[in-house]
């Protein structure tokens, strides 16, 4: 005898990076189990593969997950999670004032939005006189393997991240698409920039839109109030201590 088919509800959201509406459904038990197992194994590559496959399935194979900016991925994941396991998530956070007391908090993850720095821009002017500049594109989920810290000591990884995120270089009306340029040529271009121009590129990464939520907690032992910041998928998915504001 065939068992009844369970239908999952459909929801709609607008991606933060563009005014594009997409439909999605909650996780099913099997999908969440795969993701949890990969996270328990602490295998970041395995977790990213599982996450991409699950998000692709939950958006009915109509969204190119690998092309989305990381902040779109984070927002999409959080909205799916809120419809899958509940809008109120419980966390155990460490009070930073004594670094030993944990406090239970609840966060309505369905209302968390992507925060955008007012001064952020992906159009970076390098030389005003020549009207020389470059336009950056946002890192995708595949960059999460190497991390997105442009202040890391590994200069080769820093240059790999930067060159991979260049959409095009321009001088006046002339456009030089990155896709038509070799990695070596792009790296050589970046290496010849002034320190100020290079810092402006780093600022693009440091000020990128991000999923962020701030709460205030009071240490029950010391009565000290502290601000706690949740950022990114890891903070919202696990009950680990978020960042101190």
In short:
This protein has 245 residues and is of the alpha+beta class.
Top keywords for this entry?
single chain; 245 residues; alpha+beta; 3 domains; 4-stranded antiparallel beta sheet; 33% helix; disordered C terminus
Provide an overview of this structure:
The chain has 245 residues and is of the alpha+beta class. The chain folds into 3 domains: 7-86, no CATH class; 87-113 and 209-245, no CATH class; 123-206, no CATH class. It has helices at 29-40, 44-58, 70-85, 155-164, 183-191, 195-206, 232-237; strands at 11-14, 21-24, 88-94, 102-108, 114-115, 123-127, 132-136, 166-171, 174-177, 210-218, 225-231, 243-244. Helix 4 (155-164) packs across helix 5. The longest helix is centred in the N-terminal third of the chain and has 16 residues, at 70-85. The radius of gyration is 21 Å and the shape is globular.
What is the number of helical segments per DSSP (H or I, 4+ residues)? Answer: 7
Question: How much helicity do the residues have?
Answer: 25-40%
Question: Strand order of the main beta sheet, please?
Answer: 5-10-11-12
Shape: globular
Radius of gyration: 21 Å
Mean pLDDT level: 87
Give the tally of structural domains. 3
């Amino acid at each position: 005898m065939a068992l009844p088919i369970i239908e999952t509800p459909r929801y709609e959201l607008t991606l933060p990076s563009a005014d594009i509406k997409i439909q999605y459904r909650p996780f099913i038990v099997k999908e969440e189990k795969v993701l949890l197992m990969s996270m328990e194994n602490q295998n970041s590559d395995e977790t990213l593969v599982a996450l991409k496959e699950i998000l692709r399935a939950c958006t009915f194979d109509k969204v190119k997950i690998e092309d989305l900016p990381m902040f779109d991925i984070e927002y999409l994941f959080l909205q799916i999670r809120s419809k899958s396991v509940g809008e109120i998530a419980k966390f155990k956070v460490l009070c930073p004032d004594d670094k030993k007391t944990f406090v239970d908090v609840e966060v309505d993850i369905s209302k968390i939005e992507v925060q955008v720095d007012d001064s952020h821009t992906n159009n970076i002017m390098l030389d005003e006189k020549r009207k020389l500049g470059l336009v950056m594109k946002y890192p995708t989920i595949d960059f999460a393997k190497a991390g997105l810290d442009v202040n890391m000591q590994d200069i080769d990884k820093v240059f790999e991240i930067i060159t991979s995120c260049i959409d095009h270089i321009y001088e006046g009306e002339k456009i030089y698409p990155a896709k038509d340029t070799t990695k070596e040529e792009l790296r050589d271009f970046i290496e010849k920039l002034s320190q100020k121009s290079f810092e402006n590129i780093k600022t693009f990464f440091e000020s990128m839109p991000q999923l962020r939520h701030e709460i205030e907690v009071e240490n029950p032992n010391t009565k000290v109030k502290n601000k706690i910041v949740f950022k990114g998928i890891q903070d919202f998915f696990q009950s680990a201590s978020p960042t101190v504001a």
